[in-house]
Amino acid sequence: MNAVSGAPGGATAADSRPFAHQDRWRRRLEPGVFPAIRRDILDKRFLPAVLNQRDGAAARVVFVNGEAGSGKSVLLGQLHDDLLPTHGAGLALLPSSELRLDDTAPGAGGMARAFAEALGRPGDLVADFRRPERGPRKALLLDTADLILTPQRAPDFVALLHDLRDSGVTSVVTCRKRDFETLVRGELNSDGRPAIVAELPGLTKDEVRRFALEYLARYGIQPPIGAERFAESLLLLSDGEAGRTFLEIVSSPLLLSMLCQIFGDRHSGDIPPTLTASDLLAGYWQRTVNDSRHPDDRQARRLRKGALCFSLAGELWRESDDTLCEWMSRDALERDEASALALDELLSEGFLVEDSDAPVPRIAFRHQVLTEYAIGRWMFSGKEGERARTELLDGLRAGSDERATSWPVARQVLTISHIQDKLPRFVRGFDLSDHSAFRNIAFAAAAGNAPAVTRALREQAEKTSREHLRVFLASLRGSCPAALDTAWNEATHLLTSGTEPALSFELATVLGVLAVRRPGPCAIAEPLRVLGSMKVKASSGVRDEAGTQQRSESPVFHLLQPLLQARRPVDLASTRVMVGQLGTTTLREQYLALHLLPDTPAEQAELVQRWLLEVRVGVMLPMESSAELVARYLRWPTEEGEPSPGSAAQARLANLLLDGPFDRHPELRAKVAARRCASSKALRRTLIGLLDQPLETGAGERVIKACALLASSGHASDLAEHLLRERTDDSLPSTRVTAAKQQAAVAARLLHSSTRIAEELRPALLRILRPSPDAPPDRPRRFVEAAAGHILTCDEALELIGGLAADKRLEMIDVFLRAATPETVRALREPLLSLIDSAGGENDESRRDKARIPVYDADPAGADRIADLVSLGARTHDLATAKLVCTYLERHRATGLITDPRSLIPLFGRPWQGIRIRAMRMAAEALKEHPDRGTARADAMAERLARTVVDDGSTGWTASELQARLSLLDHSVRTAHTVPDRTAEGVCATVAEALDNQLLGGEPAAAAIVLLRTCFEQGHPGLARDAPRLLLRMLSEQPIGDTRTIRQALSAFAVRAVNRGALGLDDLTRRIPHWPALTQAPVVTAVLTTSPGGARGDHATALLRHPELSDEARALIVRGRS
């Protein structure tokens, strides 16, 4: 019961006026001290969820779940304002704290009467909503349902929401996420009509900035560093893995407002990056309760404010039972003038709020979180509080206290006890195997340094469950500064004692975060050694906390990410370990990025630089960062001005390119040389001059690469002019690269169409490449490729081709067509056709080249052009031509010219799998982009694919083609909104054939599940029966893989099928433990969602008892129960 009830009486059931107290309760949902920013998610998700019709019904049940302080109530108030113009008298707003529930009158009817009474309509709420005067659009907005929910009330509460929905009333309910998952989820979908469940995320970066700036402006707070810089500092501190704990603060409107108030006007404006929510609450209490703005009687006012808050907290706790009482009469607090002054100050500061419109004016803490925190502090303030604290903790230890209000308050008690160094004594006797006790004690322990408690938690987690380990790691991540060494020691103990693969990524991330938060260079040598030796495959079922499949990279990647995000260098020992571990290309990129940080000691960077210069050809290097590091730390002689001929700098350049074993990375050395030469004219002349010298093969390759890179950096004309000087070619041994060969290689690079050089230099450069009559075969090819790439030189390519023998001529025409731009081919269409005819009449090669030339024709924006291309692709016997056709069709599709996907059907039957796949993907994209172009087109597409399957079977399909076919079928059925019998037959045949041939794994499995669900939703009688059967067969017969897409599709389809009676919960419960481990968890999620009782129901209990249930599925149930 509530200390003060505001529920009115006196209205009759026949009264059709607007519901009572709507204006008053709307004011209760005003943000108060918060800025009233409008969040994007309200317009993008929540308002459409209420207004848009789906499944033919206008009414639905919508749950808006979020953490405490996430702004659920404010959002509900804004939603009320948006709905009021359209709903009028049919809109009811109700804070849960206004309900007086009588548990002696159970059932949805009893709850409906309590709701009606609170809304001033004694009688039956459902009947009242049915009155015509309420209008056609009706909605109930219920705030903070977690205040009234208990295991006993949840079924009646959900039944009432279902009754309202059946009467055309949409219910929008805000609730804490934990209470929803524990008490509501299992009941919500029991009638086969799923509700909309949306989680309210934290503030986005843009919303954090807007909120902070508006808050500072509203209260006249002027940070010394300026409001804009203050807001930006919040975002910087919350960036990356190391800032995740701080992000949880700034993404909460409640905590962000406290942060702005406490730190906004500090002299330095500095905010500790290690700030936690418990620190913030303590600081906010100190700022508002333990201090006063009035200098004359500050001490007396301060004491009175604290006494008043404790009095309010104690009374609220005494009046709370299964739900938390939030209000107390003002008269009970205003005992004298001093109390009245203290109360006015707390109200003006927004620490307390008043409901002055209630029949009896009443007072509350401004938020439920503050209520829980104040009660926790009260339990340390005197004998009565201490007795209440002892009773609370003893009840939780014994397991006899099952009130929903107990653990939130106990969490505050444990955190405060840690500040007072009493945590070890307070947690004694708790059963740490209980998930709720473990979680709350773990996060309380992170608020201070209690090595014995932290060690006991780690030992319990190691022997209990993976879920306990996850909670333990999450608590270590947010450890206070005093506990960082303890957290590091416990995390490294987990690492060296043999962590299971499923947690290696999370453990690596936590170690990285702790390394960043500890002072000094990041000392991660030991974790690098241990994690570097781990090889965790994606098939291990390794997931992050959100259930996302991890990539098959080394956990070292996750160890280093926090360091890179925080731009924190490592110590020398860690650098030595990195140099000793070549690792993967991804890790090399991270290693180099860490050593390019500004604070990295030169000794460590030079160690990596020497390693890079010794890497052999064949080892993949991230070239840009490698060259940057070597160029930065390679010691170049210091000289005044430009280096003179024969200088030490020129000697260093020659040494870099010409000396050393030539199996070392030539591209890296060339890149470093080009970077250095780009900024020095003298060194540039030295590099270009090396082209005139006959060099060893390896050295010549480096020089050519360096010159090509120099050209791409803006010095192409310098190179071109040098190459066009008169020179002779000396005869040299084959082990040497002649100057002419080097010059020809650089000329070919310069003639590449993307290189910027003076246009008049192109013909002259091309002459360097013109082959002699007795030249090797590669010379004409190189000349044609270079000449065909530009309109100024393409005629010379045709002239050369015309002088070749007939068999070589067609070969070079093929080279020309591959190298030339479409504009060039269109301009030379007739000369090309003439050359083809002169090469030998009608043979396969000439027909191929003739067929290819029309593909380059002009691109008119019309259907005729598409039809011509498809017809050419369907007739040609040349794969290269078919590929070219697809390339042009894809270009047309990207510009929106393919509006009728049926036009692509002729390409579905081509003998080349790649062509078929590309055509089907284009058709699917066209269907997605033009869903309004008619059902007939989608029907034809689905019918054609279905006929292919039924008539021809799936012989020869690969996984990629199967995925393309399934995806196109899905888009066709979605667009057509119907499933003809022939299509239904084809869908079943496709999936069955794929199962027979063991093709359903990975992405094809996801596509098959999505397709079956789409067809199931369309209501075709055969598929309503066969789609769930095929799903069960798929899960039983084949390991279908484990990706996020598969998990989402599988869980959603299973929920839908259970709700419609196509799959039975008893049958699923028997089958699940016998499926592959990676398949079990998504279907267990569906069982928990649809089964009465959810994670505590009979089906979940039966699953837990089965010895073959996977660890992940078991953890889902345990998490749901806690």
From TrEMBL:
Annotated AAA+ ATPase domain residues: 58-202
InterPro entries, A to Z: AAA+_ATPase, NACHT_NTPase, P-loop_NTPase
Classification via SUPFAM superfamilies: P-loop containing nucleoside triphosphate hydrolases
A Pfam family annotated for this UniProt entry: NACHT
Protein name, UniProt field: AAA+ ATPase domain-containing protein
Lineage: Bacteria, Bacillati, Actinomycetota, Actinomycetes, Kitasatosporales
